[in-house]
Each structure stands twice: as C-alpha cells, then as structure tokens.
Amino acid sequence: SMSEKDGYPHYMAKEIHEQGAVLRSTLKGRLLEGSVDLGDGVNWTPDFLGSLRRIHLVACGTSYYACLVAERVLERWTTLDVKVDIASEYRYRDVRIGADTLAVFVSQSGETADTLAAQRKVRAMGGRCLGITNVRGSTLAREVHDLLLLKAGPEIGVAATKTFMGQLGALYLLALKLGWDRGDLNPAEAERLASILLKLPYEVERVLERESEVKKAAETFFGFDNFLFLGRGFSYPIAMEGALKLKEISYVHAEAYAAGEMKHGPIALLEPNVPVMVVIPKDGLYEKTLSNVQEARARRSPVVAVASDGDDLICQMADTVIRIPRCDECFSPFLSVIPLQMFAYHVALLRGREIDQPRNLAKSVTVE
Ligand code: G6P
C-alpha cells in the first residue's frame, strides 16, 4: 500500500530517500571523542588489534561493491594488507588465514549461502570473523565472533540501496577504528575524518534533493540498450554498483570498467549508440578520468557525468552533468552512488519495469 511506502510509488524510491536517515542511524553513538565504538557486538582486545596484519572482506552483489570501496579506505587509513573477494570465489580459494587475519563478511540479509559458507571456512581455519548485516537474528549474525549491525530498517526492494549506504557507513567506522586504535592514523587526522563522517548524512540529504536532474538524464537516455560505466579509485566500485542497479531493475545491459582499463577492450564498443556514464568527482584522479572522457567523446559516445559542484570543465566534455557536493575524496562514494541508483530507477520506470520485484532475482539467495 501507499502508506507502507510513505507516499512513494515503489519501495525502491522510498528506500533511496531514506539514505540520509540510514547513514545517521548507522553512525549514531559510534563516533566518540577520540575513538570509534562499534558496540557490544565487537570484542577485540588491544593485543588482537595490534597483531592484525591482514583483513579480508567477503560478500556478494551490492555488498561486494561496498567491500571494494572499503578496500580503498582501509588501505588509506590503516597499514593492513587488504583482500576483497566475492564469497562464491573466496570459499573455494586457497587463501592464507591465521591468527593475524580479520575476515569481514558483509551481507544485508545475513542469509546468503556463499557468504555463510565462506565464514564457516575462515572460522575453521582459525581466523576472526566479523559480520556486518542489517538483520539481527540472521544466520550470519548468530555465527560470527563479532557483529556490527547496520540499523537501516527492513529493505523491501530487491535491489539493495539503503543497505549499501548503511554498509558504507559501517565499513568506514571499521576502517577509522582500526586506523585509530592501531595508531596507523595520527589522532588529529582521525578526528578530522570522524567529523567529516558525522556531517555526511547532511550531504547525502543534499544529493537526495537533486532527483529532478537525474530524472531528466534518464528521460534522455532510457532508450539506449548498452551502457559503459567508468570510474577510478573510489569511484570504480560505484561505477560497478551503478551498472549493477541498471541491469537489475531495468534489464539494460551495462558494463562497468576501471576508466584506465577502457583502452584495453571496451573502447572498441564505443559509438553514438553506447552512452558512457562516468563517475568523476573532483579528486586526485580527476584529470586521469577526464582524459578517458575525452577518449569516449572522440568516439562520439554520449557522456553522462556524475561530477562535483563547481567543476566547470566537465560541462565542455559531457553531454549531461549530474552534480554532487564537493567532499574529501575518500567520502565521495556516499554521494556519487545516489544519482546512479536514481538513474536506474527512472530508466526502469520509463521502460515499464517491475522495479521492486525484478524478474529472476531474489532478495536473498539462500542456495549456492
Ligand atoms: C541478491 C540481491 C542483491 C544483494 C545480494 C547479496 O542478489 O538481489 O541485492 O546485493 O543478493 O545479498 P546480501 O543479503 O548477502 O547482502
């Protein structure tokens, strides 16, 4: 009914718009003066944190893309060796795990079969397991050593949106805690990052107010059958998530590539029928990505850019520009993912798709 959807026509639209509140509740009470408190579910001794060398992040689908973002932030804020894998691969690989390994399993539902199997494998090999999930009573929540809950509220739309936002929040808290407690980050820098994180829900809300820009882009591009999504660094996993959303709910083929890798294959596909969706916030890799945008333009591909406020240069390069607020570069994924979720939603709507219940997909995949 409409009331369950708060007046939105679909759960997905409602859940996209809840993301400011979701991030706020995921962070709530966890950012303290001088430290991060992950709550009663997480019981690590200073000795354990000091002896850690490796962190593995394991998940499926959208949760996997949250892990790829986390990989980048963990590498920046800690000195740990970080490995990320899809659960269905990780469970069959010959990974090295020991007492110096923290394995993090990220699953919205806490019931994804491959993720559960990967957790059991790590546990049997003596690694410490942290679960990050939105469902308190889930199998994952019950089986892990340590538990971090998202507090996103139930997500009904099959395509994950607000739980991705909650996962990013939880994973950034984890990275900040590890960097802070292990002394990898200097305390003043840790304080600065914590204060940025605290203000992020407001920035998320600013992006949510800009839906009409994204809707316009969807009206221009909904008829195309193939998209190439590009990004570098923190924006690469967001390009992957944006392409996944488009596939899932509009059944439009979209492929994501690391922008610098485009020349090794996908550039052969470029032509006026293949739009390029580029995630290009103003960060240290901006110029690099911009040169890839020029390459796409030279092949006459239409370019849609998700770019920062105040970036005038991009207007000369892209056919359509969708704006996000400027932010410290580590935090752009929280903002740039939103227009991509909205783009997929509006394309699906214009194509007359199901949206909340896409064909062939399940909310949680409890078989291998
Ligand atoms: C299914 C859902 C996706 C989700 C994935 C992983 O494929 O349709 O939206 O990202 O499972 O689910 P999990 O509950 O483990 O995060």
Automatic annotation (TrEMBL):
Q: How does it assemble?
A: Homodimer.
Q: Where is the SIS domain?
A: 44-184, 217-358
List the protein's name: Glutamine--fructose-6-phosphate aminotransferase [isomerizing]
GO molecular-function terms, A-Z:
carbohydrate derivative binding; glutamine-fructose-6-phosphate transaminase (isomerizing) activity
Q: Does the keyword Repeat apply?
A: yes
Compartments where found:
Cytoplasm
The EC number on file is 2.6.1.16
EC class: transferase
Its biological purpose is as follows: Catalyzes the first step in hexosamine metabolism, converting fructose-6P into glucosamine-6P using glutamine as a nitrogen source.
Catalytic activity of the protein = D-fructose 6-phosphate + L-glutamine = D-glucosamine 6-phosphate + L-glutamate
- Catalytic residues of the enzyme: 363 (for fru-6p isomerization activity)
Any one GO BP annotation for this protein:
amino sugar biosynthetic process
What organism is recorded for this protein? Thermanaerovibrio velox DSM 12556
Per the record, what is one GO cellular component? cytosol
Q: What UniProt keywords are attached to this protein's entry?
A: Aminotransferase, Cytoplasm, Glutamine amidotransferase, Repeat, Transferase
